[in-house]
Write a structure and sequence with these properties.
150 residues, alpha+beta, 21% strand, elongated
């Protein structure tokens, strides 16, 4: 029996990020650093040795906001919880999607802050303001209960 060795059609796997890939990805994220949305990035690898780029949140937690992986020729964008947000083989489309995702994240934080402010204001108007407006009524309401304790 003869064994013939065929040439592989696949390119040899490049270990780590190529310089141009890393430059495009980091340039896409640079605009978010002055606003405090991200504090920086770290380079790592997956369990299988594929390169990853982690975008880190602000201090003190420095939690992972987004991670970008290159699996063969495919680029994968994941959020901090590991949910896949985008997959494509074009690094330019990935960079555009990363910028868009960072902008959406900032808008979501602002929306959450606005909702929280409205909830606090509503609580104050509904619960605290009536008590402060009628102090005599509050005293007459609680006085019989306090007299029983004496």
């Amino acid at each position: 029996m003869n064994v013939l060795r065929f040439r592989s059609e696949r390119e040899p796997a490049v270990q780590g990020w190529r310089t141009n890939e890393l430059a495009k990805l980091t340039n896409a994220c640079v605009a978010s650093i002055p606003s405090g949305e991200i504090s920086g990035w770290e380079v790592g690898t997956t369990e299988c040795g594929d390169p990853q780029l982690y975008l880190l949140g602000p201090s003190p937690g420095y939690e992972c906001i987004l991670s970008i992986s290159r699996l063969g020729r495919l680029y994968v964008l994941e959020d901090g919880a590991g949910r896949v947000l985008f997959e494509n083989d074009s690094i330019m489309r990935l960079a555009e999607q990363t910028c868009a995702t960072l902008r959406k994240r900032k808008a979501a934080i602002i929306a959450q802050m606005a909702i929280c402010w409205c909830a606090v204001r509503e609580f104050f108007e509904e619960k605290v303001e009536p008590i402060l407006a009628e102090p005599l009524e509050v005293v007459t309401h609680f006085a019989p209960h306090l007299a029983g304790l004496a």
